Amino acid sequence: MGKKGKRDKKGKGAEKTLAKMEKKVSRRAKKEEEDLEALIAEFQSLDAKKTQVIESSCPPPSPRLNCSFCAHPERDELILFGGEYFNGQKTYLYNELYIYNIRKNSWAKLDIPNPPPRRCAHQAAVVPTAGGQLWIFGGEFASPNGEQFYHYKDLWVLHLATKTWEQIKAPGGPSGRSGHRMVACKRQLIIFGGFHESARDFIYYNDVYAFNLDSFTWSKLAPAGMGPAPRSGCQMTPTPEGNIIIYGGYSKQRIKKDVDKGTLHTDMFLLKAEGTGKEEDRWSWSRLSPSGVKPSPRSGFAVAAAPNNRCLLFGGVQDEEEEESIEGDFFNDIYFYDIGKNRWFPAQLKGPKSERRKRRRGRQAEAGAAGGEELQLPPPQGPLEIVKEVVAEDGTIMTIKQMIPGAAGDKDRSGSEEEEEDEEEEEEGGALGQPVEPCPRSSAMVAVKHGVLYVYGGMFEVGDRQVTLSDLHSIDLHRMDQWKVLLEMDPKTQEWLEESESDEEEDDDVEGAEGGEEEDEESSEEDSEEEEGEQQHPAVQPGEAQAQYLARTEQYWLGLARSHMGPEAKDKKVLKVAHAMAKTFYEDPIQTS
């Protein structure tokens, strides 16, 4: 038997194994999904009481993860939908719709009748049709205790011009899943991968589906060639030619009872459209071998399309599990992938114009003092890695890795370009502020509009505690000069409850999963205020335990202080300012050595 025959036989065997596993998972998950369906139906009955569109200015969204964050195709707006929040005891699910106005740096909440049910880990894609459409597929709903899951397989469209939700019911679509990826490509929505999880089993997918935006029909693609292994959370990018690029992702396998082994994928594939790209037998897989510097292995990274025929990767985490500790290396770096050149390279910040001007003037002075001799410039600085180790009370070791991008060299820049930059700087009113950047994180939400990258939220872990962020940063991908802080994280929104305290709240399932809606309209105003306070995740109350919590998350305060004071400030002064910032929100100062 030739290689082709062996490969085909191997592929068919894998398909049979996958089908058996999917049937097994589906059978075991059916019971718990039936339990959650009743809960979801109750929430939908509350949503059905909304009869009119209400758009109102509001504070920024409360911290949340695994929501969708997309750029409006026609307006200077970003659209945030859904997500989840976990406070150590309870999981909150959302189906709220927020609009961020880029020019005004303001948020608005948009209440529209008959929205999709609460969900997280779904996928969203925007298309410019009829004034703009936001398409949403799949995702999951979790019970408040986080032990049961319902995976959606529904498809929704938000008509942005008319502000109406519509559920599209078409047969033949993907099975219920979350962690999949979806992109709009040549009047189609292409969906790849994802996973389905029940209380005891899980399955990862590597199938590909296409939804035709003209005929509103599903088709399962059967590409030729060997494709990626099953995975979730990968990078999925369309090319101008109508092809699809897949990179990385995460999956896990059960190696023995109650023991799972995770895999960080670092391979790269091209799903090529042969001909029209609309027929099942006109697609093919091929493996890509890019040049350049690839991102280090990681999961939880965010991806977006970038200018100049590129896509980008931001942040993520690399977990290393050992017998007595779990170490997580969190990142805040940016990598670009040049689609035309098939090449990866790390992004480097050029720094504020005022700093570049100082460097140029310093080199010119040195060149003059050398009597016209050729000046040998030092190579551009590479990224600086800062590693911080935090030990929690229970002895858990948490390693937080921060990548500080180096300054790009000015060696090849012409004098005219430098003069233009100086003129722009003068018009803007002088020297720019000290550089700032997002703290290392995974699961951030990103969007690109007019060549500017916007990074919202994400999370990092300290021991067994999860810190969910709600800050907003931006950076011009053309200039790559500096990050801008559009919204700082409010520490008052942070809440973490120990597992030992959860027994008292086991009966709060509906309220916890509801995530921001009132349970009973006839309840008293006092009860409503108490519910609202809990649903907005109030700050941890002052006390010794909270001071210790802050000590474990002091990197946030130190990073914030450093961003305000600049890199030249002495460490002792930065620490003093960090203490003062913390005391603004808490009675007890940070307990540091």
From TrEMBL:
InterPro entries: Kelch-typ_b-propeller (IPR015915), Kelch_domain_protein (IPR052588). Gene3D superfamilies: Kelch-type beta propeller (2.120.10.80). Residues 11-24 have a biased composition (Basic and acidic residues). Residues 417-429, 496-533 have a biased composition (Acidic residues). Pfam families: Kelch_KLHDC2_KLHL20_DRC7. Residues 1-10 have a biased composition (Basic residues). Residues 365-376 have a biased composition (Low complexity). This is Kelch domain containing 4. It comes from Geospiza parvula.
